[in-house]
Amino acid sequence: MGRIFIVGCGDIGRRVARLAQQRQLPVAGLVRSEQGACELMALGVEPCLGHLDQPASLRLPDLGGGSVFYFAPPPGGGFSEMRVRNFLAALAPGNLPARLVYLSTSGVYGDSGDVAVDESRPAQPLTARARRRFDAEETLRAWGAQHGVTLVTLRIANIYGPGRLPVVHLQNGHPLLVESQSKPTSRVHSEDLARICLAAAEKGRPGAVFNVCDDEPCSATAYFTAVAELLGIPCPPQIPLEEARRLMKPLLFSYFIESRIMNNKKIMNDLGVELQFPRLRDGLPASLSAG
Q1: What is the per-residue pLDDT for 111?
Q2: How far apart are CA 137 and CA 143, in angstroms?
Q3: ∠95-100-103 over CA atoms, to 5°?
Q4: Element (H, E) at 217
C-alpha cells in the first residue's frame, strides 16, 4: 500500500497506524496542534500540522503512490462537507495518492426498518450529519474518477470498543428507551474496523462501497443493558417513547429509534475479512482493556 497518510488521528486512526506499522509501512498523520503532533511522534507516526478548516495551513507531505485514510469528522451545520473539499484542494497534481479510503456512516441509508440493507440500496440520508457524509462521498467519488485515484467508501455501523463504551451515561443513571420500542442497529468493534480499513486499501476496487458491521444487530437499549451487566452497573430505568423524546438529547434519541441493520457479506466476499468479534458478546469483554 506504500506510504500511509491518516487524516483524523483519533482512536480508529491510531489503530490503523499501529496495524500499518506492524507491516513495516511508514505512517504519517494530519493533526492540528503541537500537542497532537507530540502524541503522534510518541507513537512513531510522522506528524503533519494543518487544520482542515483553514486551507492555507494545509502543507501536505509526499503522498504520491501511497494510501490516504480520511477519518476526520465533517464540520457541524449545513449539508456540505467543506473539510473534504479543502483537503482535496491542497493536493498538488503531482502529489496524488494511489488510493483513498473514506469512513462514511450507515446513516446515509436513512431508516432501514427491519430490513438488512446491502450496498445496492440507494442512499437516502435523513439527518443533516448524514447528508454531510453523503456529500463527502459524492465529492470524493467524482474527484477519484477525475484523477484516477482509487476511492473506497466504508459505511460504518455504530462503533464500540475500548474507550468507546457508554460508561458515563450508565453511571449517571440516564434512562433508556423501553426495549420493545428501541430499534435494532448494527455495530462494529473498533479493532475489526481498523483491520477492515487496511483490507479496503489493499483489495478494494475503484469506487467500491462496503458496509462495515458485525453479524448480530441489536437495539440501543439491549446494548446499554449488556454494557451495564458487564461492568456491574445498575441498569437505568426504561421509559416509553414520548417520555424519551422529551428527556433525551436529539442525537441520543436518534440512536434508540433509528433502525440501521446492514448486510456485511461484501466485506467477507470481496475483502476476505474474518471478524474477530462477530457478535456483541464476543467484543464487549475485549472492550474493557485500555487499547
Answers
A1: 79
A2: 10
A3: 140
A4: none
Residue 282: inside a domain: no
Q: For the chain, give me the number of helices (H) and strands (E)?
A: 11, 13
User: Which are the contacts of 93, defined by CB distance < 8 A and separation ≥ 6?
Assistant: none
CB atoms within 10 A of CB 206: 13
Question: Does 152 map to a domain?
Answer: yes
In a domain, 103, yes or no: yes
Q: 245: which DSSP letter? A: H
Whether pTM exceeds 0.90: yes
| Domain harbouring 67, CATH code | 3.40.50.720
pLDDT score for 254 = 86
The Cα 63–Cα 65 span in angstroms is 6
Domain that holds residue 62: 4-162+187-216+260-277
How many domains does the chain fold into?
1
* pLDDT for position 230: 94
- Nearest CA among 122, 128, 183 for reference residue 155: 122
Q: Residue 18 and residue 105: Cα distance in Å, rounded? A: 23
- Divide the 291 residues of the chain into consecutive groups of 10 and give the mean pLDDT of each group: 92 97 96 94 96 94 94 90 96 92 94 87 88 96 96 97 94 94 95 98 96 95 96 94 93 87 96 96 89 62
Amino acid in the structure at residue 272: G
CA 280 remoteness from chain centre: 17
